[in-house]
Amino acid sequence: xxxxxxxxxxxxxxxxxxxxxxxxxxxxxxxxxxxxxxxxxxxxxxxxxxxxxxxxxxxxxxxxxxxxxxxxxxxxxxxxxxxxxxxxxxxxxxxxxxxxxxxxxxxxxxxxxxxxxxxxxxxxxxxxxxxxxxxxxxxxxxxxxxxxxxxxxxxxxxxxxxxxxxxxxxxxxxxxxxxxxxxxxxxxxxxxxxxxxxxxxxxxxxxxxxxxxxxxxxxxxxxxxxxxxxxxxxxxxxxxxxx
Length: 243
Known about the structure:
By secondary structure, the protein is mainly alpha-helical. It has helices spanning 3-16, 22-43, 50-59, 68-89, 96-106, 133-145, 147-153, 156-170, 177-191, 204-217, 221-239.
């Protein structure tokens, strides 16, 4: 991973984004929001297509034959992403309260969100079993207390990747951990001036394998590389728009 190259591209983007036409950048951001919402919910099993997601989000039209839960997942994800962007605009740092708020928005009208589980859970197909009981509570508290020294120890891409991987390893909520973790990863990226990224549903196997590598071996390198590739693709796309 060439972090210095990514930082250089990020700095060029930050310095030059004022020269991108406002209508153009708005359309690109709207497209990302749609793609991110579709991919992040589809990875978790939501069956709406990209076009159906567009109809729900942009036209406010429900889709016949789909479960109401799936519609709420789409609408809620957009709201949660907008909440993340507001927090970034206000200069807020990621915190336990913000993560609980994100989860509560994601699960609105589906379940009571923002509350840690007290049940034992298994992740289908994974070698790793999430912690339970007091062990889970201790690990999620350590997750928040580790923010400061992890940020100093890791570069910005690794830090964002670690935030996602460690959170989903702990799996503190009954449901919605994946969607929450992808949002808080983007929170960390945007906090450092990077662009948010979307993991395509077609790449879920590579994505799951990288997360499993971290959960079992504590190695965040493969996941960091995956995020770095996506980040560079995003930066290259936006850099081409600078006049």
